[in-house]
Amino acid sequence: MNPLESLRLSWRSIRGHKLRSALTTLGIVIGIAAVIAFVTLGASLQAGIIGDISPDDRRNVYGWAADPDTEGGPLAGAQPVFTPDDLDSVASQPDVAAAYGYATIQTQAISNGNETVAQGNGLIATGPSYIREGRLAEGRQFERGDREAVVNPAAANQFEENVTIGDELTVTILGGERTTLEVVGITDTSEGQSPFEGFESSPRVYVPTDPYYVEQAAGLGIGGGSDGSGNDTGAGSENGTGTGDARFLAIIIEADSAAQSDIDAARESATAYLESEQSDASELLGDDLAVTFQTSTELLQQLQDVLALLRNFIVGIAAISLLVGSIGIANIMLVSVTERTREIGIMKAVGAQNRDVLGLFLTEAVILGVIGAILGTGLGLLGGYLGAQYIDLPLVYPLEYVALAIGVGVLVGILAGLYPAWRAARTDPIDALRYE
Amino acid sequence: MARETAVALENVRKTYRIGEPVHALDGVSLAVPRGSYTAIMGPSGSGKSTLMNLVGCLDTPTAGEVVVGGRPVGELEDRERTRLRGTEVGFVFQTFNLMPRLNALENVALPQLFQGIDRAERRERARDLLERVGLGDRAEHLPNELSGGQRQRVALARALVNDPAIVLADEPSGNLDTDTEADILDLFDEFHAAGTTMLVVTHERHVADRADRIVHLLDGTIERIEDLERGNDGGSAVDPGRGTETTPDADADSETGSPTGRREADSE
Ligand SMILES: Nc1ncnc2c1ncn2[C@@H]1O[C@H](COP(=O)(O)OP(=O)(O)O)[C@@H](O)[C@H]1O
Ligand SMILES: [Mg+2]
């Protein structure tokens, strides 16, 4: 009997039990839907994050000093160790195109004219090229030594009257004193510019380390800030080495190009200098404080590892659901074989070979599996789509998983149907015809 | 008319061993000539169904030889036996045994499906046979939308669809009332007249009387064979009055060839 005929006959018996068939496929539907939804979400999440690393950023290497045993993301356990002299010296090392510090200055509020809004995120004090030209929607980068700032759209739009280029803002620092800055540029996105900030959207104000961070450190006699994500890095006042000398929590170096060899060269060069006697940082470095340099991609890798782990977990659960689903199909197929014993007997009496009967029941199980897989895929894609919409991510359909899902449906059908179909095939027609 | 043998049993024994061995058939020898009409009678448990299962290639003998379509059933592999069953034998059961989800046409065409005959050809052949059993207008009906007599006619059409060497009917009218019983038996007569070999199990004398001869079974052996002197020419058994009413064979013969066309050619 040709496969098309098996398909026709099997489809007929599935339609004969619509509700039962629908319920049977439910386990497969749920399992496949879960996998597809989470894989779609995961892929979208990944694309969303990777998409945030612009080509310029790929040249950047992010460094901070922490206990080598500290686990966590960027700046985890970071201590302020880098002096402005260190930064300048690193910048002049071979293979290093540029180097600048990174620190956050804690603030209470920002005023535009007489309108004041709370601003807990603080100011991000860093080098001018931290805001890459390509990320500027308007204006220019701030310059070292000037009281200038670049703001992101979220920061610009938080006032009733939107901030524009040339506006003067007044910032209240955490200690209470005020300082002013002139807005010279607005970025094109409210998402973070580097892994130090995190990638979520929030109001941010970028300023030059000199004068803001230098004044801040001198004024308070401390060398560090906090990145605002809860790292306990406020301590540091005790290192009175260079009084009033600002120490930076983090350093960003630029390699000559995004090529891995250039990045590695820049990283080695900077590390070698900072660990040598010549650097100010080396006074503080030791067994329990070492410099770490990582690219965005490397930092993201950790996040991706977590995502992959989560995905594997979900896929594991889905696999259990698929197993349950296939047991469901096998069970229904066994019932169906028993119910249709007489039909099997009739078919055999009129010349059906064992393999014909086997083929019929196997086809039926595979149809159930594939229907489940198709419905599950549709449902999963819808779920992934809604999820991605909700978290505002670019949607990525993992098409290879859709093909895989259909394949799994077929496989589940075959596995679930094999034993029942074998039972059907070896039914003795004489017994079967007597069967009531 | 010289006749070949459609089915032959040679000293056949069938023994069931469930505790005490039961000899369902105990040394049966019988030759069924092509084109003949044989009835088998005997009390319950005398081995009638066992004999039908053997001739129908559903079962193999414990000893002796069953030859169907020229081939020894007992020595064949399961696959060959199944093929023989599909092509050389047509079954008509007491309980009809139609596929409940297939309509009349599909039921009739089913045996051809397993022979790999293509759909268009199957449907044409099935439609032709349905017309010949008088159900041309019921082709799309499901079995549960048909009366008992109609169902048995569908079953008969199905039995004939592969142009078998022999039609086996085990109490074909056991579930029918008197009138429909007469109808189906008339159809048997018509197809027999057209050359089909019939082997009918019954425990009713008036059913057996339609045959050329009656084989009486008792305790697994042939007690006696009763020749009904109906002549060897099957055509003489047909009641002419009935024949014109529902008979499909006259026009069918001229149009598409009867199920016995091959048989007649073979026997020459
Ligand atoms: N599958 C079987 N297992 C054991 N005994 C059987 C089986 N089939 C038939 N028999 C026995 O064989 C004998 C003949 O049975 P059967 O051919 O069905 O008789 P009939 O059809 O004439 O009533 C009976 O005694 C019956 O009990
Ligand atoms: Mg019986």
List the helices and strands and how they pair.
The complex is a heterodimer of chains A (436) and B (268).
Chain A: H1 3-16, H2 18-51, E1 60-66, H3 84-91, E2 96-105, E3 107-112, E4 115-118, E5 123-126, E6 136-139, E7 148-151, H4 153-156, E8 168-173, E9 178-187, E10 205-208, H5 209-220, E11 250-255, H6 260-275, E12 290-295, H7 296-339, H8 341-349, H9 354-390, H10 399-425, H11 429-434
Parallel strand pairs in A: 5-10, 7-9
Antiparallel strand pairs in A: 1-11, 1-12, 2-5, 2-11, 3-4, 3-8, 6-9, 7-10, 8-9
Chain B: E1 5-18, E2 20-33, E3 37-41, H1 48-55, E4 63-68, E5 71-72, H2 78-88, E6 89-92, H3 104-113, H4 119-132, H5 148-160, E7 166-170, H6 178-193, E8 198-201, H7 205-208, E9 213-218, E10 221-227, H8 240-246, H9 249-255, H10 261-267
Parallel strand pairs in B: 3-8, 3-9, 6-7, 7-8
Antiparallel strand pairs in B: 1-2, 1-4, 4-5, 9-10
The complex binds adenosine-5'-diphosphate (ADP) and magnesium ion.
Task: Find the structural class of chain B using helix and strand composition.
Answer: alpha/beta
Silhouette of chain B: globular
Quaternary arrangement of the chains shown? heterodimer
Low-pLDDT stretches of chain B are: 232-268
Gap between N and C termini of chain A, in Å?
27 Å
CATH homologous superfamily grouping of chain B: P-loop containing nucleotide triphosphate hydrolases
Most extensive interface: A-B, 22 and 28 residues
Secondary-structure element order of chain A, as H and E?
Answer: HHEHEEEEEEHEEEHEHEHHHHH
Number of strands of chain B: 10
Tally of separate domains of chain A: 2
Cα-based radius of gyration of chain A, to the nearest Å: 32 Å
* Total domain units of chain B: 1
Order of helices and strands of chain B: EEEHEEHEHHHEHEHEEHHH
Number of helices of chain B: 10
Detail the poorly predicted runs of chain A.
221-243
User: What name does CATH use for the topology of chain B?
Assistant: Rossmann fold
- Helix % of chain A is 40-55%
